[in-house]
Amino acid sequence: MSNSQVVSPVQIAEADLLAQLDADLLPRHVAIIMDGNGRWAALRGLPRIEGHRQGLTALRDVLDICHEVGIPHVTIYAFSHENWNRPAAEVSMLMRLLDEYLKHERQSFMERGIRFFPIGRLEKLPHAVRTLVQEVAEETQHFTEHVLTVALSYGGRAEIIDAVKGLVKDIQLGIVGEGQINEDLFEGYLTTHGLPDPDLLIRTSGETRISNFLPWQIAYTELYFTKTLWPDFRRQETLAALLDYQSRERRFGRVSHTGSPQNGL
Q1: Which of 48, 51, 154, 219 could form a cystine bridge with 120, CB 3.0-4.6 A?
Q2: Domain 25-164+197-248, what fold?
Q3: Residue 3 is a catalytic residue
Q4: pTM metric for this prediction
């Protein structure tokens, strides 16, 4: 991956970046690990909540540019299953921000035709927040052209375990036979069933791991890591990531056009 640009994307005019995009090479589905809110706030001597608030502003920027260039699916890692282990005060703060975000964006989702699709163990959310999450999901479920999938109380391993439990139950009931089990069938038991697998995964803040985010779904996803902290990741940084993506050759285990096999095999 080419994250060592000589010129920072923020130094290039947005119009110039847009002009370089090839509509035929854009990803259909972008997944994002929004990392660095706390560090952003600490560097400025601000409370962590300010980092998370600025992170929401960055999210709006990124979703706007993805919507404008025609990327139909965006999935964000909003709150992990492991995040419940954070201090209670911080968890409460994050739940309040989620409540504020949905109340602020609810009408915008309707006006722009965006489906809000939550995944994860939503039963762990506070009752009021869970109710709001479910209401917005139901109100927007008929939209299909643009889907914002939000991972809440989500863990990739937990999702796979839940899928296995569902499959075992159907085997015991005689609904599924052993000979029917394959990747396509198993995918139907995941919370993301019906969505295309991500083409591009972006992680901010310099960390280079997936942190239990969509491990099944990103088997062939292109990974883009940047040192930019999430609150500073805006429209131009998004365009830079898309340009990096469209410069890659996706082989899915096949031999490349140059004859070089993937993974040295």
Answers
A1: 154
A2: Undecaprenyl pyrophosphate synthetase (3.40.1180)
A3: no
A4: 0.89
